[in-house]
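name: query_chain
kind: protein
chains: 1
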Amino acid sequence: MKGMTIQKDAEAVRAAVRTGYAAIAGQKKSCCGPSSCCGGDAPERLAAELGYTAKDLAMLPEGANMGLSCGNPTALAALKPGETVLDLGSGGGFDVFIAGRKVGRKGRAIGVDMTPDMLAKARKNIAAYRRGTKLDNVEFRLGEIEHLPVADNSVDVVISNCVINLSPDKAQVWRELARVLKPGGRLAVSDLALLRRLPAKVASLVEALVGCVAGAVPVAATGRMARAAGLVDIVLEPKHGSIEKMTDWKDPLYRKIIAALPQGRRLSEYVTSLSVSACKPRRCD
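structure:
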């Protein structure tokens, strides 16, 4: 992947993302773009910065926290016992395992990921999750977030953590979110969003795509897609300080992105972390 650029056709984007995240899945340490970090206790530090509590992290299976977050959607979603929650782009299972504890024995936490290597990593962690929690309420499905392997009107809550930006058809993703949510169901998404157009040199980098930067869209565009999908009560909350906090972390993809910026520019001038909440009409509360 080093030094590569990419044309933004859908299949090329999917192939680049799948290859990039398969490589991440095979690493012993977390390593991916500006929404992650590498080495030592960096994934734990990142999770704490983003609002995950010590209790959230205490019973995670080893390796589930890969430092791939840009927010804390499970906290935003205010998950309740007995709910069914769906995580888009579930990776090693980080948010799914946390969500599983929150929804409890009568609830269900489902992760969907298109990268077989990530899926294998998450499924391997299920045994440790069961031993630690005495719960059997999580599962992981192979699939693309544009075509979710989930029934209509079957999910109480959808969460997603720094993943929708990776899709080459984001409008379709939002339609899928609306399809699988029950009437009155809600979503809580964390992602990266554009504040201004990226320099062409950055936008063409595979590292910037896999690192959750090149695929980002403006904040307003996210709101338009959510409304067009039929969602209501949409709240968009930029987190402007989050990118600056990452500048000292020694992430290889992040360094490549920074090197491609015009001299004197900072990545936080171009992208921000964005929290999105919304619900499907009827019984929204």
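note: The chain has one domain: 10-279.
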